[in-house]
Write a structure and sequence with these properties.
globular, Nucleotidyltransferase, domain 5, 120 residues, alpha+beta, 4 helices
Length: 120
């Protein structure tokens, strides 16, 4: 018998693995990403206060007008969120890849945010 792999379910299980560790320590804000087939979005979230502190997305006109796609676009979004985090006084965050595998655009965004000064 073949086993049917439900990709959404596998992603949900990866998300739950992250949350089991996260619920023990809510001291740092969370850098949460969402990646679709075409765009990428990032938010800095304070889970204690349940507020979004900053966000960056590939929908923004400053990124959209550059004509970047894929990994180049993710690099620009990562640098933008790091700049906005510095502006509000954040240097350390917890990286929440939201169940996505750590490669491709997710990895490039994380590396770009690290290069721009965020620690995670």
């Amino acid at each position: 018998m073949y086993r049917v792999v439900n990709r959404r379910r596998v992603r949900e299980l990866r998300k739950m693995r992250f949350w089991r560790r996260r619920m023990n320590d809510l001291s740092k804000p969370r850098l949460c990403i969402f990646r679709s087939a075409r765009h990428i979005q990032v938010q800095l979230i304070d889970d204690k206060a349940q507020k979004v502190l900053a966000s960056a997305t590939s929908f923004e006109s400053s990124i959209r007008t550059t004509g970047l796609r894929g990994k180049d676009m993710a690099k620009k979004v990562g640098a933008t969120i790091a700049e906005r985090a510095k502006k509000i006084g954040l240097t350390e965050v917890v990286f929440d890849r939201n169940g996505f595998c750590y490669h491709g655009r997710v990895q490039v965004l994380a590396d770009s945010a690290r290069e721009s000064g965020l620690k995670f």
